[in-house]
Design brief:
The structure holds three protein chains of three kinds. Chain A has helices at about 1-30, 40-55, 60-80, 90-110, 135-160, 160-170, 170-175, 180-210, 215-230, 235-250, 255-275; strands at about 125-130, 130-135. By secondary structure, chain A is mostly helical. Chain A has a single domain (about 1-275), classed as ABC transporter involved in vitamin B12 uptake, BtuC (Orthogonal Bundle), CATH 1.10.3470. In chain A, helix 1 (about 1-30) packs parallel to helix 5 (about 135-160), helix 2 packs antiparallel against helix 3 and helix 9 (about 215-230) runs parallel beside helix 11. The longest helix of chain A is centred in the first third of the chain and has 31 residues, at about 1-30. Chain A is globular, with a radius of gyration of 19 Å. Chain B has helices at about 1-25, 60-75, 95-110, 120-135, 160-165, 170-175, 190-205, 225-230, 245-255, 300-315, 325-345, 350-355; strands spanning about 30-35, 45-50, 85-90, 115-120, 140, 155, 180-185, 210-215, 235-240, 265, 285-290, 360, 370, 375-380, 380-385, 390-395. In chain B, about 60% of the residues are buried. By secondary structure, chain C is mostly helical. In chain C, a hairpin with a 2-residue loop joins strand 1 and strand 2 (about 170). The longest helix of chain C is centred in the C-terminal third of the chain and has 27 residues, at about 220-250. The chains are: A mainly alpha, B alpha/beta, C mainly alpha. The interface between B and C is large, with 46 and 43 residues.
C-alpha cells in the first residue's frame, strides 16, 4: 500500500513537471500555430537564472520568482524581433526557433562551462505520511502547478484580458475587425508561454540540476504531448501533458525504462494517427 | 532594378565563398603549445591530447588538459626529451564521438603527432582508438579508470581496472555497509563489463546482488529505482550511473531516506570534481576506491608536490583528481617520457617495447609500474569516504596492486 | 528547353528571358569537387569525403521536402538504421564487400521509409504537414532511444571498430580513393534525381507542391505520390548511411537521432530547397564553416553557427542558392513548351 502511494505521488509529481513545461508550448501552438523549438531553452534559462541568483549568495527562491518575469520579458523581445516573421510559415518557424534555441543553449553552455551544477531546493527534506516519505519540494511543485493552472483558467475565462485572448484564439480575423490588436496579443501570449517555461525551469532545477542540455530532454515529450492533447485550446495541451507525463512516469514501474520510453512515443503517434485532432478538439478554453 | 541587385548579391556571395574555401584549404591550427626553443636538427617531439573540453565530461577533460600542459612544461624546462622539445597539440573530443573522430584525425593526419593520450569515457576510447592505432598507426595511451578487457596492441592503459578497484573495495563495503547490493548503471560498456566483475567479487565475498539495472544516459528521474532500493532494504548502492543522471539519482535517494536508514553509497569514479555535483549531506558516507585522493597530500610529499604545482598553475574549478583521469594522464605522460628516453627514439615500435616495462618512482598516490606484456599499470589504491564534502582515507593497499588484465 | 513556358507568368517590368544558371552552378560544383583532392592535404580530403556523404544525405531530404513538400524531421532514422545494419553485417557476419553492403544499406533505408511513410502518409484522412513532421521526428527519436538502450547494438557506445569496406581483396580506406567513390555515387544519384524530377513524375510532384487539392482533383493519388518520393528519399539516405558507417569506422545512436535529422534539414534550408544542387552546396558550406569556426573560435563556434542559421532563415528563407538562381529555376521547367504558351497559362 505504501509502495502504491509512493508510486502515485512520484507519477503525479512527474506529470506536474511535464504539464508546467508543456503549458507554455501548448499556448503558443494553439494561439499562433507554431511549434516553438526553443521552449526547452526557455526552461533552461529559467533554471540558469535561478542558479545565478543562488551563486551570488541570494536565497534560491528569489531566483525562482525572478525567472518567469525575466524569461517572459526575453520572450516578448524575441517575439517582436524574430518570431513574428514566422507566423505565415509554421515549418520555417520550427527551424527558426530551433536555431534560436541552439544559440541560447550554446550560450548557456559557454557561461556554465559545460558543467553540471546543483542548486538546493528552497523547501528541503521530506514530508512523512506515516511510513511514506515524499520529497517536500516535489510536493510544492505539484501545488504550484495546480495554482498556475487554476490561475490561467481564471485569467482566460473570467477576465477581460482573457476574453480578448480567447477571441484572438477562436477567430483572429474577426478579433482584428473588432479592434483587438492581434499583434500585441501574440506578443503577450508568447511572453506568457516563455514565462511559464521559465517558471518550470526554476522549479525543476533543484530536482534535475543545471546543465546545458536540460531543455532538449523535455522538447520531444512536449511536442508529442501537445499533439496528443489537441492544438487550439488551453485545456488540450494540459490534458496531453497529463497523459504523456503520467505514462512516462508510470510505465518504468512495470517494464524496463528503455522499453517504456519508446512505448510512450509509439502509442502517442498511433493515437494521433487515428485521432488527428487530439484528445480535446475545438478552440477556446 | 531587381536584376542589378541580384548581380550585386551574387558577386558578393561568390567572393565570400572563395574566401571561405581558401581559408578552409589552408587550415588554421587548433590549440598548440609551441616550445620556446626548437632544436632545428630534429624538430620537436609532438604530443597529442584528445580530451573532453566541452560536454558533460568537461569537468574531467579540462583537468586532463591542464595536467598535460603542466607535465610538458616541466619536461621542457628540464631540457626536453632526447634533446628535443615537446610540442603539445590539444583537441576537443566534446563528449561527442563523431566530433571526436574528426578532431583526432587532425592530430594524426594534419599535425602528425608521435603519440596520442586521451579519451575519458569508454565509448570515447572505442570511437577514437581505431583512427589512432589501426588507421593512424600511432601509439595511444588511455588514462582513465575503466572496465578492462582492452588488449589492443599499442594501446596502453594507465588508469585503474576493475580488479584494482573492486578486489579490496567490495569486501570493505560488505564489512562497512552490508550484504545486499544494488547495481544501478548507465547503459554503456563500462557499467556492463564492470558489473560482471563486481558481481563475481560480491558473491565471492558473501554478498548478494538484489538487482542490476541499466538506464539511458540522460535519464534524470529515478523514482522507480529508488523505491525498489528502499523496499528491498538494499545496504550498498554500487552506482555506475554517470553525469547527468548521477546528481538527481543521489538526490532522490537521499530524499527517500536511504542514507538515514543506514544505507551506503559506493561509486568508483567519484572524486573531488564530482563531489560538487550534489550537496554534501546528500552523499554523506559515499565510498570510492581510486589511485589518489587530495587528502593524501598530508602524508605523501610526492603527491603534495604534484598537487601544489597543479594548484598553483591551474587554480579554479577543474581539480586534479583521480576519477577524472588527471592522475592517469600524469602517470601516462611520465611513463611515456621514460620509455622514450630508454628507446632513444619516438618510433612507435621502439617506444612501445620500452613502455611495456616502464616504471616511475614518483607519481600521484605512489609509484607506478607497467606490467610487461599486459599494457596495464600497477599502482597503489586507496579507499576513501566522503565526510562533510571532503574525503577521508579509510583503507590503503598493501603495495602496488596488479591490474590483472589481458 | 522551355524558357517561354512560364514566361507568361513573369511579373511586369522584368525581362522575360534569363540565362539558365542552374546547369552552370552544377557544373561548377562538380569541377571544384573533382579537383579537390589534388589541392587539399590528405586529412582535409578525408573531411571532404565526409562532407560528400552528408551531401548525399542532404539530397535525400531535398527530394522529400523540396519536391514533395514533406517536412521529414526523421531522415536520420533511415541513415542511421542503414549504418547500424551494415555495421552489424561487418561485426557479426564479417561481410564488408562493397557489392553487398551498399545495396544492403539501400534496402534497409527502403524498407524503413516504406513502413514509416506508409503509416504516416497513407490512410483515410490526408495527413497534415505538422503530423508528418512530428511523426518522423518521433520516429527518429524513438530509434535513437532504442539504439541507446539495446546492448546488442552497443547501447550508448554504438558499434566501434568497423572493418574497412572491401572490393574483393582490396580495402577501400579513407583518403582520395574513398573520396572519389563517395563523389561518384553522389554524382550518379544526383543525375538520377535530376532525371526523376524532370520527368512526368516530377511534373506531378511540381503540381503537388503548387496546389495539392487541385492535383488530387485531377485524379492523381497524392498520398501515393508522396509515399513514393518518401521511399526514394529513404533509400538514398540508407545508401549514405552505409557509406558513412564504413568511412567513419563506427556507428552510434546519435546517427539515428533528432539532432542529426535536424542538421540535414538545416543543410537544405541553408542551401536552398527544390534545386537539388542547393542541398549539396548547403551541406558543403555548413560543414565547411563549422569546421573552420571550430578551429578558430573554439569556445563560441556553435553560437556563431546558430546566429548564421537564424539570419538565413529570417532573411533568406529560400536559401543561399536564391542569390544565384531565380524562382523559376527553383521550380524547374518540364519538357517542351506548348506553342501557344501565353494563352495556355492557367
Amino acid at each position: 500500500m505504501a509502495n502504491a502511494l509512493v508510486a502515485a505521488f512520484e507519477i503525479l509529481s512527474f506529470g506536474a513537471i511535464i504539464v508546467l513545461v508543456v503549458l507554455g508550448l501548448g499556448i503558443i501552438a494553439s494561439m499562433m500555430g507554431i511549434f516553438n523549438f526553443a521552449q526547452g531553452e526557455f526552461v533552461l534559462l529559467g533554471a540558469y537564472i535561478t542558479y545565478l541568483a543562488y551563486s551570488h549568495g541570494l536565497p534560491v527562491w528569489t531566483g525562482m520568482v525572478a525567472a518567469p518575469f525575466l524569461v517572459g520579458a526575453l520572450g516578448f523581445v524575441l517575439e517582436a524581433l524574430i518570431i513574428r516573421r514566422f507566423y505565415a510559415a509554421p515549418i520555417v518557424a520550427m527551424l527558426g526557433t530551433y536555431a534560436l534555441g541552439l544559440i541560447i543553449r550554446e550560450s548557456v553552455r559557454g557561461l556554465i562551462g559545460g558543467l553540471y551544477l546543483s542548486v538546493p531546493e528552497p523547501v528541503g527534506g521530506s514530508i512523512d505520511f506515516g511510513s511514506v516519505h515524499v520529497s517536500a519540494w516535489r510536493f510544492v511543485i505539484i501545488v504550484i502547478t495546480l495554482l498556475v493552472m487554476v490561475g490561467c483558467y481564471l485569467l482566460l475565462s473570467r477576465t477581460n484580458f482573457g476574453l480578448r485572448i480567447r477571441a484572438t484564439l477562436e477567430n483572429p480575423a474577426l478579433a482584428r475587425a473588432s479592434g483587438i490588436s492581434t499583434a500585441s496579443m501574440y506578443g503577450t501570449t508568447f511572453a506568457f508561454g516563455a514565462a511559464l517555461a521559465g517558471l518550470a525551469g526554476a522549479l525543476l532545477v533543484p530536482v534535475f540540476s543545471l546543465f546545458a542540455d536540460l531543455g532538449i530532454r523535455f522538447l520531444i515529450q512536449g511536442f508529442v504531448a501537445v499533439m496528443v492533447g489537441g492544438v487550439g485550446s488551453f485545456i488540450g495541451p494540459v490534458a496531453g501533458a497529463a497523459v504523456i507525463g503520467t505514462l512516462s512516469a508510470a510505465l518504468p514501474w512495470v517494464m524496463a525504462p528503455v522499453a517504456a520510453d519508446i512505448l510512450v512515443f509509439v502509442l502517442a503517434i498511433v493515437f494521433i494517427k487515428f485521432r488527428p485532432q487530439g484528445l480535446m478538439s475545438g478552440k477556446g478554453v | 532594378m531587381r536584376n542589378d541587385q541580384g548581380n550585386l548579391n551574387r558577386r558578393r556571395f561568390l567572393g565570400g565563398f572563395a574566401f571561405a574555401s581558401g581559408a578552409i584549404a589552408t587550415g588554421a591550427g587548433s590549440w598548440v603549445l609551441r616550445p620556446e626553443w626548437a632544436n632545428a636538427a630534429a624538430g620537436p617531439i609532438k604530443v597529442g591530447i584528445a580530451t573532453d573540453l566541452t560536454g558533460p565530461i568537461a569537468y574531467a577533460g579540462n583537468a586532463d588538459a591542464n595536467v598535460a600542459k603542466m607535465v610538458i612544461k616541466e619536461i621542457n624546462d628540464s631540457g626536453g626529451l632526447l634533446g628535443r622539445p615537446l610540442e603539445l597539440f590539444i583537441e576537443d573530443t566534446a563528449s561527442n564521438e563523431s566530433v571526436a573522430v574528426g578532431n583526432v584525425r587532425k592530430l594524426i593526419q594534419r599535425d602528425k603527432v608521435d603519440m596520442v593520450l586521451g579519451g575519458i569515457t569508454s565509448s570515447m576510447r572505442n570511437a577514437i582508438k581505431d583512427p589512432i592505432v589501426a588507421r593512424g598507426k600511432t601509439l595511444y595511451i588511455y588514462p582513465q579508470l575503466y572496465e578492462g578487457k582492452e588488449c589492443t596492441p599499442y594501446l596502453f592503459c594507465t588508469g585503474p581496472t576493475p580488479a584494482q578497484q573492486c578486489d579490496e573495495f567490495i569486501p570493505w563495503l560488505i564489512k562497512n555497509g552490508g550484504k545486499k547490493f544494488a547495481l544501478p548503471s548507465a547503459n554503456y560498456v563500462w557499467p556492463h563489463t564492470l558489473n560482471v566483475y563486481a558481481r563475481k567479487v560480491i558473491e565471492a565475498s558473501g554478498g548478494e546482488v538484489v538487482f542490476e539495472e541499466y538506464y539511458p544516459l540522460d535519464q534524470v528521474d529515478f523514482s522507480s529505482t529508488v523505491s525498489r532500493i528502499i523496499s528491498n532494504k538494499v545496504d550498498v548502492v554500487f552506482n555506475t550511473v554517470i553525469p547527468p543522471g548521477v546528481g538527481p539519482f543521489f538526490k532522490q535517494l537521499y530524499e527517500a531516506g536511504f542514507l538515514k536508514g543506514g544505507g551506503r553509497l559506493a561509486c568508483v569514479y567519484y572524486d573531488e570534481n564530482t563531489l560538487n555535483i550534489n550537496q554534501a549531506n546528500e552523499i554523506e558516507g559515499l565510498a570510492s576506491c581510486l589511485d589518489y585522493f587530495k587528502t593524501l597530500t598530508k602524508d605523501d610529499p610526492v603527491s603534495a608536490k604534484i598537487q601544489a604545482a597543479y594548484d598553483k598553475d591551474y587554480p579554479g574549478n577543474f581539480l586534479f583528481a583521480a576519477g577524472s583521469a588527471a592522475t592517469g594522464t600524469y602517470r601516462g605522460l611520465k611513463l611515456w617520457a621514460s620509455a622514450v628516453k630508454e628507446a632513444g627514439s619516438v618510433e612507435r615500435e621502439a617506444v612501445a617495447a620500452a613502455l611495456d616495462h616502464a616504471k616511475i618512482a614518483e607519481g600521484p598516490g605512489g609509484p607506478a609500474e607497467m606490467v610487461p606484456g599486459k599494457r596495464h599499470c600497477k599502482m597503489k589504491m586507496y579507499t576513501a569516504v566522503a565526510k562533510g564534502g571532503n574525503y577521508e582515507i579509510v583503507g590503503r593497499s598493501e603495495g602496488l596492486v596488479d591490474p590483472k588484465e589481458c | 528547353m522551355a524558357e517561354s513556358g512560364l514566361a507568361g507568368l513573369a511579373p511586369a517590368g522584368q525581362k522575360t528571358v534569363r540565362r539558365k544558371l542552374l546547369p552552370i552552378v552544377e557544373i561548377l560544383t562538380l569541377a571544384v569537387t573533382v579537383i579537390l583532392p589534388f589541392v587539399l592535404q590528405d586529412y582535409l580530403t578525408v573531411f571532404a569525403t565526409r562532407v560528400a556523404i552528408l551531401a548525399l544525405f542532404a539530397l535525400s531530404f531535398d527530394l522529400v521536402w523540396g519536391y514533395a513538400g514533406i517536412m521529414s524531421f526523421g531522415q536520420a532514422l533511415f541513415f542511421g538504421s542503414a549504418g547500424y545494419g551494415v555495421a552489424l553485417l561487418g561485426r557479426d557476419l564479417n561481410i564488408t564487400s562493397i557489392l553487398v553492403v551498399l545495396p544492403a544499406g539501400m534496402l534497409i533505408g527502403l524498407v524503413f521509409s516504406l513502413l514509416l511513410g506508409g503509416f504516416l502518409l497513407l490512410g483515410r484522412h490526408p495527413a497534415s504537414v505538422i503530423f508528418v513532421s512530428l511523426g518522423t521526428l518521433t520516429g527518429s527519436y524513438a530509434a535513437d532511444r532504442l539504439a541507446r538502450g539495446w546492448y546488442y547494438l552497443g547501447g550508448q557506445n554504438g558499434i566501434p571498430s568497423i572493418p574497412s569496406m572491401t572490393l574483393g581483396s582490396y580495402e577501400i580506406t579513407e583518403g582520395p580513393v574513398y573520396y572519389y567513390l563517395a563523389l561518384g555515387i553522389l554524382v550518379v544519384v544526383y543525375l538520377l534525381c535530376r532525371f526523376l524530377v524532370r520527368s512526368q513524375f516530377g511534373l506531378a510532384l511540381a503540381g503537388l507542391r503548387e496546389n495539392e487539392q487541385r492535383i488530387a482533383f485531377f485524379g492523381y493519388k497524392v498520398e501515393h505520390l508522396k509515399a513514393i518520393v518518401f521511399t526514394v528519399g529513404g533509400t538514398i539516405a540508407g545508401l549514405a548511411g552505409s557509406l558513412y558507417a564504413f568511412h567513419e569506422g563506427f556507428v552510434w545512436p546519435n546517427m539515428l537521432g533528432v539532432v542529426f535529422s535536424t542538421q540535414v534539414v538545416l543543410y537544405v534550408l541553408f542551401g536552398g530547397s527544390g534545386t537539388l544542387i542547393g542541398a549539396v552546396i548547403g551541406a558543403i558550406i555548413i560543414e565547411g564553416v563549422s569546421f573552420w569556426l571550430s578551429d578558430n573560435y573554439r569556445d563560441i563556434w556553435p553560437i556563431i553557427l546558430g546566429v548564421l542559421l537564424l539570419l538565413v532563415i529570417m532573411f533568406r528563407p529560400l536559401g543561399l542558392i536564391s542569390f544565384v538562381l531565380g524562382e523559376r529555376e527553383r521550380v524547374g521547367s518540364f519538357g517542351r513548351a506548348p506553342k501557344e504558351s501565353r494563352h495556355a497559362a492557367p
